[in-house]
Fold:
Amino acid sequence: MATLPSKEQIMEWVADNPDANSKRDIAKAFGIKGALRIELKRLLKELEADGQIERRRHYLDAERLPPVTVLELLPPDGSGDLFARPLEWHGDGPQPRILYAPRESDPALGRGDRFLGRLVEVPGEDHQYQARLIRRITAAPHRITGIFRKEAEGGRIVPIDKGQDREWRVRPDMTLGAESGELVQAEQVGPKGRLGLPMARVIDRLGDPSAPRAVSLIAIHQHGIPDDFPDAVIAEAEAQKPATMKGREDLRDLPLVTIDPSDARDHDDAVAAHIEDDGGATIWAAIADVAHYVIPGSALDREAWLRGNSTYFPDRVVPMLPEALSADLCSLHEGVDRPVIAVRMRLDAQGNKIGHNFHRGMMRSRASLAYEQAQAAADGKPDAQTEPLMDSVIRPLWHAYGLLKDARARRQPLDLDLPERRIELTPDGRVQSVNFRERFDAHRLIEEFMVLANVAAAEELTRRQRPLLFRVHEEPSLAKIDALREVAQASGFTLAKGQVLHTSHLNRLLAQSEGTDFDELINISTLRSMTQAYYHPENFGHFGLALKSYAHFTSPIRRYSDLIVHRALISGHGWGKDGLSPQDMDRLSETATHISETERRSMAAERDTTDRYLAAFLSERVGTEMTGRISGVQKFGAFVKLDETGADGLLPIRAIGQEYFHFDPEAQMLVGSDTGLEIGLGQRVTVRLAEAVPMTGGLTLDLLELDGQPLPRGPQKGRRGRSPRPMATKARLAEIKRATKRRRKR
Structure:
């Protein structure tokens, strides 16, 4: 009696019989008759939906695609065009480029959606095929990054996302040859398999998860950050020639210097200053002229738009532009002629900007200084490089900074003080140490110069009525400010109520906490109350900086937003044909949304990578006692920010005492039902590191002491880690509320 063949057997037969792959041919080959034909049809549909069998088997030229094939839609490129990739490509050369050309009647497809497309070859274009939709097959499959565990029947994938504990089953024919313990990327296929686990197919093998540089690689793949430049983009970058003086002002006599981190590979801003007789100053900020090399509509432009920004990890940078530009032609290296767009800004004796003008020119950096080096010179300890620059560079810069600092004090932008962690790695990629970066006046000097230059760019383009992208930061919602007020009150501080919110009100709160045990907590809570900044063609102001008009102009090597502003300045001043194109203007809103999303994507990837590195660093210290402070409270437990590393760990409910805890979301507090123990924001704790999982970045803690006191003992917990919940009588609830109110009053 004939039996239904497996999918593997069907695929092998189709491969061996490329000219006979109809359902009738397959049924005849395996002797399938009657009701089994229905099951065979189901199998073939699943194989077709997965892209495993297609009519392509009739076409024997491996270097060409069949006229009908299964495609996956890619994200829009820099020009807004949609391209697709074939799910199967067996040629020796690179995958052909396929332009998707939807008709008005076609349903909308999104990134990652799969569809059956009809292809037409288009010789002479920058793409080889044009595709029309026949029908949509599936929506974009869910992607998983995890550790592959080999089993007798295929394997399973253990996810590496923090808080994700669902595993995925992989059939033997879908492992892509992955070895046990290997890091893989997979996508969901079909319904749940046996044991109720969802099914997945391995689509990429990422190697040993414990290998050097694997931590950032995980984040890159998890968040879908493009990290390989297409050949056409690399070729276009490497074909660029240094800019000439044509159409440029000669700014090479200006005492411009770059001041950056000591390990910086690119330098996209240079500064200079001159002290005026009236006590004011003239400031120059010269910014790399990336627009000269990245022309609208070019392969470089499309890729830069797609990436949106550079992404920075402790062990690598995923740049927006290829190294030939980012680290060479566009980088303002010492002693080398480089094209720039520069702004000259005039300050009065009070630090107010009383005028500015823009220039497209050629500069030559006098020196590439590190922050520490410039600070030492300003403090009267110059080295051999900075000694000759004291009168022409260092003293004028610090004089101008003093003026800007006075103006900043009057303007009262949000004055957050959040220490930045620095993860130092060994040559083989292991965590050597975790420290907090030291903040110098040299850092603040560059920040203030760049803020002023960004303001000048926004004002200039607004005055000229040119389209641009503003950097927008709207004021926080009332709900978030109320939550911050609760934190302030619980910590013994006040945030005034019933008035229009200004940054000065928040600065007064920050000043109250400065130097106290609650300093970092109030800073973090204030930051969390803020809305997220974003890009927009319309100007809604910048609340955090207390500025009416602000645009990003100073980092075009690493931000596409700045490149748009540069092009707008070029168009507005009539400096050349490489300014803002009609296409740039038509899709300004789309660009704003896209690069706001890529910025958030990079921030999430950078944060996840830091968490994993910290967990790896602490994994050798499991069982060690540490001190910290409660930084967040939820019904499932509390979060603790550890003093030494700044890492965040979870204190689960089961690790807090031996009683049931009531969660008061208004007071951000857990209250013990039997002892009245109160656990709230800002409290000092001593904890034991119970678990550190480098693959997810998760830290689990056990609570030992609260505000210097050991935990009171309550009744024994039940099997699930909690004591039986007491009856919610009115008297008990009232007692809990009174405890919460007492905490608030303190």
DSSP finds 17 helices and 32 strands in the chain. Residues 143-209 form a domain with the OB fold (Dihydrolipoamide Acetyltransferase, E2P) fold (CATH 2.40.50).
